TrEMBL record:
Pathway: Cell wall biogenesis; peptidoglycan biosynthesis. One of its GO terms (molecular function) is carboxypeptidase activity. This is Murein L,D-transpeptidase YcbB/YkuD. One of its GO terms (biological process) is peptidoglycan biosynthetic process. CDD domains: YkuD_like. Gene3D superfamilies: L,D-transpeptidase catalytic domain-like, PGBD-like superfamily/PGBD. Belongs to the YkuD family. PROSITE patterns: LD_TPASE (PS52029), PROKAR_LIPOPROTEIN (PS51257).
Length: 530
């Protein structure tokens, strides 16, 4: 009986015991092992690897059991060649210690084991840095700009490098990790083209000699240097007497130059044309390099269907299955109220939207205007509401506490958003929309909004993307607009939105530039070469 009680007690003890959770080890994804060649190999002291403070480097050499890997001359030569000519891709060879690496290579047969190990590590470290720069850029846009909302690009450089190393396909890595977009390829071509130009030593075109715009057949001393610039860039060909007369040949050349730079191609020489002409070859090259960096920040692959906006070009393209199906002129934010850089997905079309005055416009525009004229908002069909949702008469509005109210503009043709807006998730409270200033689309400089993007002929765009000839034909859409009732329609077809910024590219072997409306190019180039 005692034995029975004893067994029962043991069973009870075991049954009451809390289950101890099993500890599941976290297994890190290992890079494939490196296949070493028969050439000279030496063991690497891990302390030397640790001095680089790079987890990636440690993992790379763990895959070779801490032995040197670059014994093969062909592989070393390829890496050195890539790093040395990295400037052809807009990168800086000095970032990859190319001079130091070449010194090691020149003494490869007499290097001590320690020096060979150091050389091997330096080759790996700098080649991986180069690959990272090619894939996602040298700089992190989130550390430079507060209004750039791009998905972070992750890159398993060890996995990619080791696979290419083992298969003797290092060259394919360099090709495959770069952006696939046509604009990026056009930028590389632009860099190649501009490197064919000689150094320019043309004097700057001074505004002292240009007190007004120059028109055909007029005379101006500035025309001598203007003609020199046109000849330099190839917009004017053949010989010219370099007189101060604005002749027909120069007029046609100016129009060609203006078209390449996104200016009104009217042949009239004003400040915008002079500003573009005064860019030196070196400044244009720097602009191209800055744009190559930006394109490495952007998404590597495009969605099947997407809207792509180039802010400095004031242009929106709808691309479906690799075909541009619609192009629209747009108005973008001013330099003070920049349009943010965004990658997102279109969600909703809203017809007859109301407009709620945002905080910045409230502070900088509405409050000063209301202090001068209490009927300012009423004249714009904007109603003031208190926190309880009650209408506040303008004469009872407290100018000392403007943030305690909501300011809502009713739907209609004169609404600030026009008769339509397109919503997409973002952290900046911006969207695409119509406008009550439709005459803006006829301007050449369209950096005029408060941050949102205004789209020309938006109802045609809505009909296109809703793609429902029964429920949302143009006639049905017009009926919805006429009702002045706010109506939200979900976009069933998936469209990505790429709202980006680039100011240079090439087309048919011609350099194309746009005004750097947010003054980003020079600063970015300086950071790249710092």
């Amino acid at each position: 009986m005692r034995k029975l009680y004893f067994l029962l007690a043991i069973c009870l003890f075991i049954g009451c015991k809390k289950d101890t959770p099993k500890i599941i080890p976290i297994v890190k994804k290992k890079a494939p092992l490196i296949i070493l060649s028969d050439e000279r190999k030496v063991q690497i002291d891990t302390a030397t690897i640790n001095t680089f403070k790079s987890e990636t480097l440690k993992q790379f050499y763990a895959a070779s059991e801490n032995k040197t890997v670059w014994g093969n001359l062909k592989k070393r030569t390829f890496v050195l060649s890539q790093l040395e000519k990295s400037e052809e891709l807009g990168l800086d060879p000095t970032d990859y210690k190319i001079s130091q690496l070449k010194k090691f290579e020149s003494k490869i047969n007499s290097l001590t084991d320690i020096d060979l190990a150091t050389y091997d590590i330096l080759l790996t470290y700098n080649f991986e840095k180069y690959l990272n720069h090619l894939y996602k850029g040298k700089l992190d846009p989130k550390k430079i700009y507060t209004d750039w909302d791009l998905d972070e690009k992750t890159f398993d450089v060890n996995n990619v490098l080791i696979k290419g190393f083992n298969k003797n396909k290092l060259d394919s890595i360099v090709d495959n990790i770069q952006p696939k977009s046509e604009t990026y390829k056009e930028l590389l071509k632009a860099l190649e083209i501009i490197n064919t130009f000689p150094d320019d030593n043309i004097e700057k075109i001074t505004t002292d000699s240009l007190t007004k715009k120059i028109s055909l057949n007029e005379s101006n001393a500035a025309l001598i240097n203007i003609k020199k610039r046109l000849l330099f860039w190839g917009d004017m060909t053949g010989k010219d007497s370099l007189t101060t007369i604005y002749n027909r040949k120069t007029f046609e050349s100016i129009k060609k130059f203006q078209e390449r730079h996104g200016l009104a191609a009217d042949g009239v020489i004003g400040q915008g044309t002079i500003s573009a002409l005064n860019y030196s070859k070196e400044k244009r090259k720097q602009q191209i390099i800055a744009n190559l960096e930006r394109w490495r920040w952007f998404a590597s692959d495009f969605a099947e269907n997407y809207f792509i906006i180039n802010i400095p070009d004031y242009c929106l393209n709808v691309v479906e299955e690799q075909d541009t199906t619609l192009t629209r002129n747009i108005v973008v934010g001013t330099n003070k109220r920049k349009t943010p850089i965004i990658t997102s997905t279109l969600k909703t079309v809203v017809f007859n939207p109301t407009w709620t005055v945002p905080p910045t416009i409230l502070k900088e525009d509405v409050v000063p205007a209301m202090k001068l004229n209490r009927n300012y908002l009423a004249n714009k069909n904007i109603t003031i509401y208190d926190t309880s949702g009650n209408v506040v008469e303008p004469n009872k509005w407290n100018e000392n506490k403007p943030n305690r109210y909501r300011y809502i503009q009713s739907p209609g043709q004169n609404n600030s958003l026009g008769v339509m807006k397109i919503l997409f998730p973002n952290h900046h409270s911006v969207y695409l929309h119509d406008t009550n200033h439709r005459n803006y689309f006829g301007r050449n400089n369209r950096s005029l909004s408060s941050g949102c993007v205004r789209v020309e002929n938006p109802l045609e765009l809505a009909e296109h993307i809703l793609a429902d000839s029964i429920n949302f034909s143009r006639e049905k859409i017009d009926t919805i607009i006429a009702s002045k009732k706010t109506t939200s329609i979900r976009i069933t077809k998936k469209y990505a939105l790429y709202q980006w910024y680039w100011t240079a590219w090439s087309k048919k072997n011609q350099l194309i530039f746009r005004a750097d409306i947010y003054n980003l190019d020079s600063d970015l180039y300086a950071k790249l070469r710092n």
